[in-house]
Amino acid sequence: MSTHDPVPSRRPPFPAASAMRALTVWQPWADAIAYGDSLTGKGAENRPWPAPRWIIGTQIAVHAGLRVDHAAVLPCGRAWPGPHVPHSQRVRGAVIAVATVAGCHHERQCRGRPCSPWAVAGQYHWELEDRRPLREPVPARGFQRLWRLAVLAESAVRLQLGRAPVPEASFRVPGTVRSADFARRASIAGSQACRPPSWSAAQTSRAMARAHLICWT
């Protein structure tokens, strides 16, 4: 324990963290992963660091970050999967799909030929399989590297995948914290700062209402 903080904090972090990990990807690359089949979709995500061994074979959430890569260039003979809209109008600040990390290797292991049209030289290639776009994006704040989804966000993702929501025990709130205050803090993912620009206020409200319905009933 640090000498600067002799008394442990009684308040848990908000929002509570879930078990599902997420990876933030800039647009339009996020849409390229989420949409398209095994031939046209982006099945290789390029990173300067390797995928941890424990994530191999695990399903992760694909999070569209707030930034847009305006210099993005398509591989030869490819078209952007997903909505045919300007990159700046694509959904941002939300989970838009899930995918399974099937493997990871460095470009040096491709043996002189690209393992995917989407692969970039000098990078680690994360092999993404079973890519499934969500019917409706789930607002969430992104972070660098792999990060844990908030419990509310994971419940909203699970609902669309036809899975059971996060166990109710994950939502226990200390008696010193009012439920309304907890709900307000946990709803930050749907705030104006994180809401995709293409969303209306009604769309955001419906998405967060579904998440709260799972958590509070």
Key phrases:
217 residues; globular; disordered N terminus; alpha+beta; six-stranded mixed beta sheet
Q: Can you describe what's shown?
A:
With 217 residues, this protein is of the alpha+beta class. It has one domain (19-164, 172-216): Archaeosine Trna-guanine Transglycosylase, Chain: A, domain 4 (Roll), CATH 2.30.130. It is 19% helix and 27% strand. A six-stranded mixed beta sheet has the order 2-5-4-3-1-6. Helix 2 (151-161) crosses helix 4 (201-216). The longest helix is centred in the C-terminal third of the chain and has 16 residues, at 201-216. The model is unreliable at 1-15, 169-197 and 211-217 (pLDDT under 50).
Give the helix/strand class: alpha+beta
Strand order of the largest sheet: 2-5-4-3-1-6
Q: Let me know the CATH homologous superfamily.
A: Hypothetical protein
User: Largest beta sheet, briefly?
Assistant: 6 strands, mixed
- The unreliable regions are 1-15, 169-197, 211-217
* N-to-C SSE string, H for helix and E for strand: EHEEEEEHHH
CATH hierarchy, class: Mainly Beta
Q: Helix coverage percent of residues?
A: 10-25%
Q: Overall mean pLDDT score?
A: 75
Strand content: 25-35%
Looking at the overall shape, the CATH architecture is: Roll
Can you tell me the number of structural domains?
Answer: 1
C-alpha termini separation: 37 Å
- Per the CATH scheme, the topology name is Archaeosine Trna-guanine Transglycosylase, Chain: A, domain 4
Rounded to an integer in angstroms, the radius of gyration calculated over CA atoms is 19 Å
Number of strands: 6
Net shape: globular
The total of helices stands at: 4
